Amino acid sequence: MTTQCNRMAEALNRDCQCVSVDREKLLRALAQGEAGADMVRLIEEERPHLFAESTVFLGQASVERMAEIVAAIERVAALPAWAERVLAWAPQAARHETGAAGVFMGYDFHLGKDGPQLIEINTNAGGGLLNAALSQAQVACCEEVSAILPGVHPAATLEQDYVDMFIEEWRAERGAAPLGRIAIVDEKPSEQYLYPEFLLFKKLFERHGLATVICDPAELRFAGGALHHGDGRIDLVYNRLTDFGLEAPAHAALREAWLAGAVVLTPHPRAHALFADKRNLTLLTDEAALVELGVDAATRDVLLSGIPRTRGVRREDGEDLWAARRQLFFKPAAGYGSKAAYRGDKLTKRVFEDILAGGYVAQALVPPSERRLGTEEAPLELKLDLRNYTYRGRVQLVTARLYQGQTTNFRTPGGGFAPVLTVPRMEQNRS
């Protein structure tokens, strides 16, 4: 997939030093409204590497290819045979059917030699609203980059798109009934790394007339056929929990309310089961399984060329997996945020024994591409991955994360969330 726009993007990522994030502009945008000073403190003092200091370039051909892979997966996930297959290994709560699709689906990619390769899917992908602000806080110091800056999605338009998404989730379940109160739910929310985004969502919802509370799931109670927080009824829950099956005792009230149809929950256990369980990747990269599921040939071609081959880890395959480990990446089936995920070439025998105990998949390794910053005397080479935020198969925003080390970690100076600028196809520049 070596097109001219992709080659130019690669060159810009390697050589262009003149694009940076206007941090003061970014912080001014985040500081607007009540408690703005606290927001700035949370980011500047406690999360200094949340936002990268530069921009990532991406060829339009790669943008289109990622959208093609997303669409192919969505088509497969809509098949009844797919649901029957993946729900067999999912938590019981995932069998509950719902009209809501799930907000902020995150499709994460690395750029391989043959184009974008899907690494994983997440159903509660964080950072969408933070990146809406980040996409506007850019400056360009050369003609080549200035020419593509106007293509950035306006933050206000993107924020409205996000609000409309939640309204659509509500209407899919409740029709024309008014949406009154939203709860943004996570365990110990003020201690979460992305807590600043919770505050931004609260302000965004309230600007649109939607009362909003941020709370721990233990603060919720299910009584009288409704979900409550304090004295108020909760109509919709924006779910940021990583207990994807709502199986923890502390989440019982939320689980019961959702299963009873008493609250609109988004995202929810069924969405995670259909899309984000890592075991699903073993089916999406197995041609025989795709044929058996009734997936058409064109869709199979997109999946098999766009997702690294993935297989379940079995103890009886331990010897072969250990021998091939340097070409593999090991992930827990229900993992998130790169927790307990390992590059095979970094594995110790002790950790490998834990992996063989079960619950892991092994994915063919696709090393991340790089963004080079700094100077010749003091170069800074950062790895990058790409995230597509989607809703019902439509890509809303493409962003990047810059980092050093094995996985994204928000601990790298100069790293963090980075805006993506699309390098258009050259023939479009001539028109």
Give the helix/strand layout.
Elements: H1 4-15, E1 19-21, H2 23-30, H3 36-44, E2 56-59, H4 60-77, H5 80-87, E3 105-112, E4 115-122, H6 128-134, E5 138-140, H7 143-146, H8 155-174, E6 181-185, H9 195-207, E7 211-215, E8 220-223, E9 226-229, E10 232-234, E11 236-239, H10 252-259, E12 264-266, H11 269-276, H12 280-284, H13 287-293, H14 297-306, E13 310-312, H15 318-323, E14 328-332, E15 342-343, H16 349-356, E16 360-364, E17 369-374, E18 379-391, E19 394-403, E20 416-423, H17 426-429
Parallel strand pairs: 2-20, 6-7, 6-11, 11-12
Antiparallel strand pairs: 1-5, 3-4, 3-18, 8-9, 9-10, 13-16, 14-15, 14-16, 17-18, 18-19, 19-20
Helix pairs in contact: 4-14
Describe the structure concisely.
By secondary structure, this protein is of the alpha+beta class. Helix content is 36%, strand content 25%.
How many beta-strand runs?
20
Q: Bin the strand percentage.
A: 15-25%
As a whole number of angstroms, the C-alpha radius of gyration is 22 Å
In total, how many domains does the architecture comprise?
A: 1
Structural class: alpha+beta
Calculate the mean pLDDT score and round it.
Answer: 90
- What's the oligomerization state? single chain
Low-pLDDT windows of residues: none
Instruction: Report helical residue fraction.
Output: 25-40%
Output the number of helix runs.
17
**Main sheet attributes: strand count, strand direction, barrel closure:** 7 strands, mixed
Apparent shape: globular
- How far apart the termini lie comes to 23 Å
